[in-house]
């Protein structure tokens, strides 16, 4: 009985040690990334090289098997470069490093992350060419490399990315022909480069969906303007109504009121009239051919 319990204990210990070993290479890769990004002592301070499992580290997310699936380090002020060791994170689905000052080239090893679905490296200072190895990321849905210093052509291997929903390569120094398959992606932007969009520039370098945000803002502005105008008109009419009603008592058949000094300066005359006992306020404007009539 005792020996059986000891065997169970040893088996559990071996399984635990195996999970530590599996987690160790992930922790080493992430710690190398931290160092290459020139993180300060106050940045990612809990990324401890002596702590084997990185799943408790800031901005690192794992699945139930302790596989790192997401690393999000956006807008943290990093100025270093990317480490090739990032390529060992085989289960990684999201890598977001946008909004930093990262320099250097995109490592070829990023193309080894075969489960990657979201790669966001925009708004950095990355240079060199886009590695063709990225064309092997067949699960990739969102790719953003915009606002960098990338040069050279868009790899032809990008035509082999069947899952792409959005590709942003704008504002770089890219040149050459855009692979035709990329124009079938629902949302794309290749502007701000020296790229040939279609044969003899026959295609748009940005999909219409890229302008959806600004279009919605314009529509919202128009709606707000219309509603504001209607509210102003109703308030203005209410003030005029009260003005005419306040002058009902003690009026003669026709009363002329000069309102040039009032804020409603476009009115030249206000007449109060009671045909058959119904008081009416008539507002005159020299520039209008038809007076405004209010029944009080």
TrEMBL record:
Intracellular or extracellular location(s): Cell membrane
Signal peptide coordinates: 1-22
Keywords attached to this entry: Cell membrane, Leucine-rich repeat, Membrane, Repeat, Signal, Transmembrane, Transmembrane helix
GO CC terms, sorted: plasma membrane
Key word NADP present: no
UniProt domain Leucine-rich repeat-containing N-terminal plant-type: residue ranges: 25-63
Transmembrane segments: 220-243
Keyword tRNA-binding: no
Membrane topology value: Single-pass membrane protein
SUPFAM superfamilies: L domain-like (SSF52058)
InterPro entries hit by this protein: Leu-rich_rpt (IPR001611), LRR_dom_sf (IPR032675), LRR_N_plant-typ (IPR013210)
Major localisation: membrane
PANTHER family, A to Z: SOMATIC EMBRYOGENESIS RECEPTOR KINASE 1 (PTHR47988)
Protein name (Swiss-Prot/TrEMBL): Leucine-rich repeat-containing N-terminal plant-type domain-containing protein
């Amino acid at each position: 009985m005792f020996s059986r319990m000891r065997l169970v204990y040893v088996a559990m210990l071996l399984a635990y040690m195996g999970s530590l070993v599996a987690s160790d290479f992930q922790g080493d890769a992430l710690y190398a990334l931290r160092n290459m990004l020139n993180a300060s002592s106050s940045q990612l301070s809990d990324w401890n090289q002596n702590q084997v499992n990185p799943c408790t580290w800031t901005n690192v997310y794992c699945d139930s098997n302790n596989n790192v699936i997401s690393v999000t380090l956006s807008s943290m002020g990093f100025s270093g470069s990317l480490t090739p060791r990032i390529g060992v994170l085989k289960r990684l689905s999201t890598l977001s490093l946008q909004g930093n000052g990262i320099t250097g080239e995109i490592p070829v090893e990023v193309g080894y992350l075969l489960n990657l679905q979201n790669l966001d490296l925009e708004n950095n200072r990355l240079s060199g060419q886009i590695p063709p190895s990225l064309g092997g990321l067949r699960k990739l849905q969102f790719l953003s490399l915009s606002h960098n210093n990338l040069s050279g052509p868009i790899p032809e291997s990008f035509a082999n990315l069947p899952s792409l929903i959005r590709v942003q390569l704008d504002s770089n120094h890219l040149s050459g022909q855009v692979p035709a398959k990329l124009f079938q992606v629902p949302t794309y932007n290749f502007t701000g480069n020296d790229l040939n969009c279609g044969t003899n520039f026959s295609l748009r370098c940005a999909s219409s969906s890229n302008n959806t945000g600004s279009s919605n803002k314009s529509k919202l502005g128009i709606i707000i303007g219309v509603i504001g105008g209607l509210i102003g008109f109703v308030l203005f009419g209410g003030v005029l109504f009260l003005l005419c009603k306040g002058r009902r008592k003690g009026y003669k058949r026709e009363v002329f009121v000069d309102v040039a000094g009032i804020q409603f300066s476009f009115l030249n005359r206000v007449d109060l009239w009671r045909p058959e006992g119904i008081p009416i306020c008539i507002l005159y404007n020299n520039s209008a051919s038809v007076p405004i009539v209010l029944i009080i």
